[in-house]
Write a structure and sequence with these properties.
alpha/beta, eight-stranded parallel β-sheet, 29% helix, 11 helices
């Protein structure tokens, strides 16, 4: 189901038209160009060529591993980009909350994994409603305690003739939710098997927040976590918990999905085992945090990454230099309301002056953002910097998830920054 056509007026960041206002369906016909001043700044944009390269890389990864892609929709919460991910070969979508599930259902998604425990009464009512409304819905949630199993059982008491799929979550001490041992996981699985409203589907884990002193130690701990996940799955299989259908094993955020695909495939649970990886950021990539992790992936798993299109950052945020009150200090029209700052600050990449350049120019690396306010970026650069008030600045971002949630509409542009379409977000 395509999202309903929306009017794009100046109440949305980046939209500059005085009217008649374009819509999500007609914006590509406006002949707008970011460099020509047709969009208000700050403005987040997505590069169409980078999206295409990243889609191609993921399709090749899936072909090589045989894994299923269930990308985490929380990254973008964009129905247009989720539809593109299905075109990339995604078999379903992952949500973090029941609200995200509802947005996905509204736009036609019918295979959803909520990679979280659902325990609240309102959320359980929505789960029940979804199962009752959509008989074709394949819906799964996580459990990591007998108590969470009992809450689901009670919350689904008014769902006739349907059982909710659940995955037991394997965790690690100090690393968020999940059972802490195989024995504990088997107790939770046994409680699921005793439930008339739940259906045990497999085991899930999330490796992205495993602690460690350095990257090598973290990867060693992740290998151990995947090993425990496999051990739990094999123990469930030996007990005959999956006679009716294949077991599902799921892991792999945006940083270690190669390790997830290779490690979880080692489970001796039968030929029908399904491996679900959940990278949400592969489509947009970034200019910081994720780029570094993917470089490690290329060294760690060359059999999965050699020859693929190298992922490219698709998401940029553009702003004006609005003030240069000191020779080595400037301020741009971009702040915490516009770009992520939870991992790294935005990175100045390129600049453009309309009466000087025909295309954006690379900025030297000695131009840096040192702080953000709500609407200002504090830049530090040498006194010899060519920047002047009014210049356009392109910023690379780190952690796409916490940039997308700051925008309700994001134009897609070609390599000359012509606006070709737009995506919306549903946070």
């Amino acid at each position: 189901m395509a999202p309903a056509e929306q009017v794009l007026g100046p109440w949305l960041k980046g939209m500059a038209s005085h009217g008649p206002w374009p819509t999500t369906q007609t914006i590509g016909a406006q002949n707008w160009n970011l460099l020509n001043g047709d969009l208000t700044l700050p403005c987040a944009v997505l590069k169409s060529s980078a999206l295409a390269a990243n889609s191609s890389a993921m399709r090749r990864f899936l072909e090589l591993t045989g894994a299923e892609l269930w990308p985490h929709g929380k990254t973008t919460m964009s129905p247009e980009l989720m539809a593109r991910q299905l075109e990339d070969g995604a078999a379903g979508m992952t949500a973090a909350t029941v609200q995200q599930m509802e947005a996905m259902l509204l736009h036609g998604q019918r295979r959803i994994l909520i990679a979280n425990q659902v325990v609240g009464p309102a959320e359980l009512r929505l789960l029940s409603g979804a199962l009752n409304r959509y008989p074709e819905l394949e819906l799964m949630v996580l459990v990591d305690s007998v108590e969470s199993v009992q809450l689901l059982q009670r919350g689904l008491s008014f769902v006739p003739d349907r059982r909710l799929g659940v995955l037991v979550e394997m965790g690690q001490v100090g690393a968020r939710t999940g059972v802490r041992s195989v024995a504990e996981g088997l107790r939770v699985a046994a409680a699921v098997m005793d439930s008339a409203k739940l259906r045990l589907r497999g085991v899930e884990t999330y490796e992205g927040i495993v602690p460690g002193a350095d990257q090598l130690e973290i990867e060693k701990a992740i290998t151990m976590l995947f090993g425990q996940t496999v051990e739990l799955a094999e123990a469930m299989s030996v007990r005959g918990y999956f006679r009716e259908e294949p077991i599902i094993l799921s892991g792999g955020g945006s940083c270690y999905y190669d390790m997830a695909a290779l490690s979880l495939h080692r489970a001796k649970t039968g030929d029908a085992t399904r491996i679900l990886v959940r990278s949400g950021c592969y489509l947009t990539h970034d200019d910081g945090w994720l780029a570094g992790f993917h470089e490690r992936m290329r060294h760690r798993s060359p059999e999965l990454t050699q020859g693929e299109p190298v992922p490219r950052p698709a998401l940029e945020v553009w702003a004006h230099l609005q003030s240069r009150p000191e020779p080595t200090r400037g301020y741009a029209t971009l702040g915490k309301r516009d770009a992520s700052y939870d991992i790294d600050l935005p990175k100045p990449l390129r600049w453009f002056r309309r009466d000087l350049h025909s295309e954006p120019q690379a900025l030297p690396e000695n131009h840096t953002v040192i702080a953000l306010n709500d609407q200002h970026a504090h830049l530090e650069f040498p006194a010899s910097s060519p920047l002047q008030v009014g210049d356009l600045l392109c910023f690379g971002i780190s952690h796409p998830c916490t940039t997308f949630d700051k925008w309700r509409a994001i134009p897609i542009v070609d390599d000359r920054y012509n606006v070709v379409s737009v995506v919306t977000t549903w946070f």
